[in-house]
Sequence to fold (378 residues):
Amino acid sequence: MHIQTAAVHTLKDLAHGAVVPPVHLSSTFELDRASEDGQYAYQRGANPTRAQLETVLAALEGAAHGFAFASGMAATAASLSTLSVGDEILLPASVYGGTYRFVDLVLPGRGVTGRFVDDLGALSDADFTPATRAVFVETPANPTLRITDLRRISELAHRHGALVIVDNTFMTPVLQRPLELGADVVVQSATKYLAGHSDMLAGVITTNDDALADAFHLSQVAQGGVLAPQDSFRLIQSIKTLPLRLERQQQNAEAIVAHLRDRADIARVRYPGSHSEEEAAVHASQAVGGGAVLSFELADGLDRVAFLQALRYPAYAVSLGGVESLICRPAAMTHEAMTDEARRAAGISEELLRLSVGIEDLSDLLEDLDQALAAAAR
Ligand SMILES: Cc1ncc(COP(=O)(O)O)c(C=O)c1O
Fold:
């Protein structure tokens, strides 16, 4: 089954012939009075609506197990819950700012060290120590859109007994399926493309590993950061249009990249594969498109604030993946938790702007960018 079909047809044979699943709000469930067993007992452990969503999430990824959390960060934190005292995790310097915050401020209290690496693509055997238990990868990285070779990193990490955890938020399983490339765990902020309308927080973990699945379920039960039934239902509905939305968003993004590239009023445009021919070849070998996020800097002498004030359509807001375009300045917004030095090492300049492209009419978006660039040059 292709992913476009799985997005709408995974849940079949529903009670009463319904074509849309019901929402089960119950926090608690009756048990058999003699055996004291039941398929469900208490919502934190499992709930029929969340279970249906988790079935869809696993199907999209071709995974054995799916888990729905209350936010992307709850999912990321759960994905790191198997690390313990003395362990080390390797991460790219340009990782999402919230992940950086978790690794920088929370993991040390658990005796776990996060080591940030400037270029994951250059990782070699020498970077691993006996304490290295995991490598956390974002490809494309946020917001530099640098690419990491998932097959290579998985082979390297596994040689050293380390897990590979991939944050696939920017690609979704529509464009890239890391488990099929060797990764052990995929996390996503479903707040972004999966939900797609900038109207809910949600997070996802998928894996084929039964022991890790037990650990992630334990995290749901013991830490409680699970997705509520209404949001689980809304995410099931949103996922049905994910492939369509992303296709249109990616078409718009590709056209905007072509429009902004090689012009005097833009210093540099970043999009998956733009860093080097090698990264372009790697991305083409592991994903079926560049997605719908790009970043760029205005040329010297242009007024960034005037540009942002003149833009009519993209909201000046963090987040990405919604049907409406959003623009932000990572150094001040999504990545403000990083130190200046960490941002410099990651290649996130003060002037870098990140654009998440929506489903609007392309000519409206291009005209809007042109008139804002003209305003910035005045
Ligand atoms: C790449 C990436 N991973 C994880 C997260 C965290 O997700 P959430 O905001 O749903 O907690 C974000 C949020 O911006 C993100 O961009």
Summary: Residues 71-73, 76, 96, 98, 138, 142, 167, 169, 189, 191, 201, 203, 319 surround pyridoxal-5'-phosphate (CB under 6 Å). The chain has two domains: 3-239, 243-377.
